[in-house]
# Entry
Amino acid sequence: MQSTYSDGLNRAAPATRGIDASAIQAFLDGLEREELELHSFMFWKDGAVIAEGWWAPYAPGLRHMLHSSVKSFVGTGIGLAVDRGLLALDAKVADFFPEHVPPDAPASLHRMTVRHLLTMTSGHGSGISGGEWRRLTTSWIADFFKEPMVYEPGERFVYCSGCSYMLAAILQKVTGERVRDWMAPRFFEPLGIEDLAWDVGPDGVNTGGNGIRAKTSDLLKLALVHMQGGQWQGQQLLSPAWTAAATGAQIEDIVIGHFDGKRYADPGAPGAEKREGYGFQWWRGPDNTFTASGLFGQHAIAFPDHNAVIAFTGGIAPREKRVHRLIWENIVADMQRRRAPDAGPADADARLARRLAALSMPIEHGETIPASRADFHAAYAIAPNDDNVARIALACRGDDCTFTLTDDRGAHEIAASFSSWRDGQTSMTGWRIHHSYQPDQARVLARAFWRDEQTLVMDWIFVETAFRDHVVCRFDGDEIRFDRRVNTNSTRKEMDTLSGRRLS
# Structure
């Protein structure tokens, strides 16, 4: 049976769309076998979502940071402006911001166009990553224009989040509104995307190439609208000409180096990989697919030849390609069989539905509290360290355990539960292992348990991001050792061990 959910998408059983549920089961088996951490998964085919799951405590109504899949959103914003005659693809980038162009800028910079930004062929020798700019508080526009121009614009593909930021800045310049606000009535609201949040850079501009927090269904709809030639429920939101150009191969046979935590390495570097091509802020893939692709595993893949879209979020860098391989080996292989739909009851569909409903993060936990720790309050002075942490305090009683860390930014608290996930807000320091993200407040789900009398373990899931921190406090008399590591990151995954002595 098919029904309409609050996200505006119909649901149906896999068999009704000619899909064998065992193929999706095999995909899930592969994720478990290879320990690939997905947070959500949605599979739409022929008019309905036929499989979906969230690994608890992730849930359908929660937003998730999308990272570079945001580039496909900002490209959509540009398409809306181009369709309305507000912007031309051959418009010169420098002409929008003459106040930021250096007086000694090379002539090639003045030849850079909006099209070059869309196709990542700006002429720069290396890309600017979101993590590189995130700690920069001065104008990102000015910094973009200071980057060395090594190539003629259009000559060479160099993946660059700075290009996407400039698209957002240009769109704001021509519309008078931030991209998120301008797109809301023209794109987000017709799709039922209601609470999408988008970070703002120091120029007062949405960050363009990253920084969106949205639901998995929102990401799926973005790809679905483009696969449907710009249509959504009878409305033509984007022109077919734009969606065809945006998702087509504007640049072909791309070879890029692995992400090194700061910039994309030279294409000749060891481990370089081949990509099918690039459109206007969309990746081209095998079998006529196109993808909105985000670091750590935030992807929406459209399969026009099968009238299907798969969207997922996770925390899996640098192993996203393994998820794609599992999709092709199992789900795509099944779609290629093109079997006839079967509307009758299917035990396989029911088994899959039960499994998807029971998904959860495989996180170690225990509920036994040692008698000596039933009421535990302690504060520790921390030895000098590079993270400027001065104090750690713990207050554990009954089901509650509150952890407080004090550093040069102030005091940062996380409240955990021994029996369930505690939902809260925190200012906890963590940019070094969180891809340079450090918001003033972040939503966190926290749980704690005593592994033994001397070892307190906490898991902090920053549930609107890809990041999940595993924290271990080890006690030895009046001394504490504090270790913290993250599930995924572009660079380091562990903070330096902190040690301290109990305060009287």
Observations:
- Residues 388 and 408 are 6 Å apart (CA to CA).
- Confidence is low (pLDDT under 50) at residues 258-271.
- Residues 320-335 form the longest helix (16 residues).
